[in-house]
């Protein structure tokens, strides 16, 4: 199949979080299965200057007409080491600023343009499927559907199948109604059965309503999106399209994340040879200047310091965890208030709590390889990456019972799940983890963790059968 991914992030070239990692991992896995995979994203200044960006050459021309001045540009084409074809959009200076997201209304124009140009690219490339990732790409399925409204186009039967992926439905791309004009869609699309949402424009809604299939990044999250608690206001839309909504969990790159060969570690280890893991634990204690806690009580947490990740609950549990004998290795960056409360705890408990602020991929690997357990107290977690990484490195994930964490952790076998998300429940779960990790079954537990298949192999197969099944349905029969 010819598969076009449209996204705002792609690791390692343009990434702020799990989205870029998942897009890159899935694209590579589908390419490995023999499909022609293209990955199109904005030609951000930072992407074009990234040391790992491949050589790019001008390819398809882009022209967006309809409102105000015509936007002109082009796609730059290159090939990634994974065999995935890269397309980077250069368009009237829209992506020349620093960073990926401006975080203001100008993002509407930037990502509306991405959706429109992506829809055009799908026809240029003769794609069988266009996969739109998150709200940034979600206008593309809608633009393609609007073109299908024309009977002649429909008869030609060339439109690609479209899939909207929801990596994080809490972000839905909402802007003022005035931004609708930039979509150049017929005015009837701005209504309750279109991209209008509480009087404004909602780009994710465009992808949810007008794509042929919706994929959430885990089966549990697919169900959660249909509820008012997790649907981000769009739960009614997810429920209305429940027959087109499925969940497929993400994988991780098990070639790169491999304790057998990982150069970032103090020592290497494997399922059959775990001696190196003990050395990684000692090295981690040294590196972070933490006192050696009893077995099972070196606890870590890694991730963005954001409310989604539940760091506030962890902060409230820190005193209790330390009282229970734990040492805590924390790595993350983000919300200054959360950081301050964690740093306060580090001052109260020298040698027992350590926060490293920042994004440090090598240190994160040493943490997975050295810590006994990894706390994942996320409020919501569409799929989650860190629990898979922890499993791969033999570190026991201890996670809130939510979203993709439920689908990737079998309680008591490949991690622990707790609920509700409160300090006492978290402390209780850490206690349970320490009991298991210091008990007679510890070696077997570690074995089970490391043997769990966290690769992209199974998810990629599921993706392909979904895409093939969706593509068999003729465009005229899709709505
Ligand atoms: C988002 C979600 C995370 C998911 C990732 C990749 O970052 O918050 O749960 O793993 O996307 O799909």
Can you give keywords for this protein?
479 residues, alpha/beta, Rossmann fold, 2 domains, nine-stranded mixed sheet, six-stranded parallel sheet, 38% helix, elongated, binds alpha-D-glucopyranose
Strand order of the largest sheet: 3-4-5-2-1-6-7-11-12
Major sheet attributes:
9 strands, mixed
CATH topology description of the largest domain: Rossmann fold
What is the level-2 CATH architecture name of the largest domain? 3-Layer(aba) Sandwich
- Fraction of residues in β-strands: 15-25%
Q: Distance between termini?
A: 22 Å
Secondary structure: number of strands: 18
Question: Which spans of ≥5 residues are poorly predicted at pLDDT below 50?
Answer: none
- Judged by helices, strands and strand pairing, the structural class is alpha/beta
CATH homologous superfamily designation of the largest domain? Glycogen Phosphorylase B
Can you list the ligands bound to this structure?
alpha-D-glucopyranose
Quick one: overall form? elongated
Alpha carbon gyration radius: 23 Å
The proportion of residues forming helix, as a percent range, comes to 25-40%
- What's the domain count? 2
How large is the count of helical segments?
18
Could you characterize the architecture of this molecule?
The protein has 479 residues and is of the alpha/beta class. The chain has helices at 18-32, 45-48, 106-124, 134-137, 139-148, 151-156, 203-210, 219-225, 235-240, 275-287, 311-323, 336-348, 361-370, 386-392, 403-408, 423-438, 442-451, 457-472; strands at 2-6, 36-42, 57-64, 71-79, 85-91, 129-133, 161-166, 174-175, 196-197, 200-202, 213-216, 245-247, 298-302, 327-332, 353-357, 373-376, 396-400, 416-418. The chain has a 9-stranded mixed beta sheet, sandwiched between helices. The chain has a 6-stranded parallel beta sheet with strand order 15-14-13-16-17-18, with helices on both faces. Strands 8-10-9 form a 3-stranded antiparallel beta sheet. Helix 14 (386-392) links the parallel strand 16 and strand 17 (396-400). The radius of gyration is 23 Å and the shape is elongated. Bound molecules: alpha-D-glucopyranose. Residues 17-19, 22, 167-168, 217, 250, 381-385, 404 line the site of alpha-D-glucopyranose.
């Amino acid at each position: 199949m010819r598969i076009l991914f449209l996204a705002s992030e792609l690791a390692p070239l343009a990434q702020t979080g799990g989205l870029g990692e998942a897009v890159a991992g899935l694209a590579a896995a589908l390419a490995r299965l023999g499909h022609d995979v293209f990955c199109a994203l904005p030609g951000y200044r930072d992407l074009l200057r990234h040391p790992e960006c491949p050589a790019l050459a001008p390819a398809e021309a882009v022209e967006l007409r309809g409102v105000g001045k015509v936007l002109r540009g082009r796609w730059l084409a290159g090939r990634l080491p994974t065999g995935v074809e890269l397309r980077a959009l250069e368009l009237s200076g829209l992506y020349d600023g620093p960073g990926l997201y401006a975080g203001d209304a100008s993002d509407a124009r930037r990502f509306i343009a991405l959706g429109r140009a992506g829809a055009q690219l799908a026809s240029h490339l003769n794609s069988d499927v266009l996969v739109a990732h998150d709200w940034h790409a979600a206008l593309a399925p809608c633009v393609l559907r609007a073109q299908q409204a024309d009977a002649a186009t429909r008869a030609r039967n060339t439109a690609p199948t479209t899939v909207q992926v929801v990596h994080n439905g809490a972000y839905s791309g909402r802007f003022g109604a005035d931004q609708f004009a930039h979509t150049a869609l017929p005015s009837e699309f701005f209504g309750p059965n279109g991209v209008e949402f509480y009087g404004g424009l909602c780009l994710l809604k465009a992808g949810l309503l007008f794509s042929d299939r919706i994929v959430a990044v885990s089966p549990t999250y697919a169900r959660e999106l249909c509820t008012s608690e997790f649907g981000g206001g769009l739960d009614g839309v997810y429920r209305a399209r429940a027959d087109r909504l499925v969940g497929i969990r993400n994988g991780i790159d098990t070639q790169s994340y491999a304790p057998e060969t990982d150069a970032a570690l103090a020592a290497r280890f494997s399922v059959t040879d775990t001696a190196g893991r003990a050395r990684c634990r000692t090295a981690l204690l040294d590196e972070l200047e933490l006192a050696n806690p009893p077995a099972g009580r070196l606890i870590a947490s890694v991730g963005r310091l954001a409310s989604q990740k539940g760091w506030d609950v962890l902060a409230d549990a820190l005193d209790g965890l330390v009282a229970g004998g734990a040492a805590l290795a924390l790595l993350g960056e983000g919300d200054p208030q959360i950081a301050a409360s964690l740093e306060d705890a580090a001052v109260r408990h020298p040698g027992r709590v350590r926060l490293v602020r920042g994004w440090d991929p090598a240190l994160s690997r040493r943490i997975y390889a050295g810590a006994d357990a990894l706390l994942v107290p996320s409020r919501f977690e569409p799929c989650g990456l860190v629990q898979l990484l922890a499993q791969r490195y033999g570190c026991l994930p201890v996670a809130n019972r939510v979203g993709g964490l439920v689908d990737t952790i079998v309680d008591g076998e490949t991690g622990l799940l707790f609920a509700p998300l409160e300090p006492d429940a978290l402390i209780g779960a850490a206690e349970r983890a320490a009991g298991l990790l210091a008990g007679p079954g510890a070696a077997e537990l570690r074995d089970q963790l490391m043997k769990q298949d966290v690769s992209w192999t199974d998810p990629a197969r599921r993706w392909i059968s979904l895409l093939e099944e969706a593509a068999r349905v003729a465009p005229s029969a899709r709505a």
